[in-house]
Amino acid sequence: MTTIGGGASPRWRLACGWLTQFVVGTDLFVVSPLLPAIAAEYGLSAAQAGISVTAFSVTYLLCAPVIGHLADRFGRRRMLLGGLLGFALANLLTGLAPGFGLLLATRIAAGATAAGIAPLIYAGVGEAAPEASRATWMSIAVSGLLLALSLGAPAGTLLAAHWGWRAPFLVLALASLGLIAANRLVWPDDARRGGATAAALPALDWGAAAIGLLPTVLWATALYGAYTYLGVWLTGEGLSPPLIARAISFYGAGALVGTLIGGRIADRFGVRLTQTISLSGLAACLALFGIGVGTGLAADMLLLVLSVFAQLFFPAQQAGLVRGFPGRRVLLLALNNSALFLGISAGSVLGGKAMEWGGFSADAGLGALIAGLALVSIILPGRLRPRG
Questions:
Q1: pLDDT band at residue 196, thresholds of 50, 70 and 90?
Q2: Is residue 387 part of a domain?
Q3: Which of 250, 284, 346, 387 has the fewest beta carbons closer than 10 A?
Q4: Domain count, the chain
Q5: pTM of the predicted model, to two decimals?
């Protein structure tokens, strides 16, 4: 097995990146099931406690491009290790917070530090990967985040059931400290890597970057505008909690499969074709939900197919950005994460308005239209659009 940089093999870097994404993802996803216990302890409504989730997301959105820019200037590994240290401290203080005000501050700190971890992991994995397998490796890194939804968050919920809601955050703090040591070992130091300095950074074509990032915003708006209100729709259809859980599990399984095969398809057939297949399938599945197709097991299967198609997109998009902006890959991947959160936020707002107007059918129909716009943004020729 060949080695690069400081001696760690590329596969060890991939494994460390995957584990880091799993821990960060667990922190992101575990808060929601813990909200009732958090709200009860502090005497808040669930909606008031939910501000902590919003604060995390908004902080992440705003901080990711700033930290990406700083990493380009001052060193990737230095910023990654600092981010993990801050992330560990934020989780420790979350687990010890005596009041909701301090807890809210610690979740803001967690969002800011998480924003400095994921894009740097993606950039490092993309750099370590063999050229012909870059999208595949990046899809594996993304799968750590997705597996946190189906394994990490439930494990944290079970831990909280026995030891209280603070316990998962204390465990995450300990795990983050361990990840500092692991990441320090596997990634080359910035001097050895030949990291960019302020004088050496290439100029960024912001017009090309905006065109390259627009599909992420539209894709996330279409997908999460429908996903946010999936539980509301299933409950309204009279499904029992076990059947709702079954439907969500089909969606989660599809997301994991789509992410893993999306990278392989992109490596073999190209980024643009993979994105086109993804957005076409997403638009078609949302349109079927929009016209009322799918009840019971049929709806579960449609959710599975929808999720597979949808998740083909993200690893292909990341690989395209790395290829299109090689000198500013950290900043572009950070901006891509911000674009993801922007789309999630926009989708929740637009989906809510559509639900008020015409229920889940209207929500899904609007999502199909937005996915179509994302497809247009991919296939239309554009002089400024980076090639991938």
A1: very low
A2: no
A3: 387
A4: 2
A5: 0.74
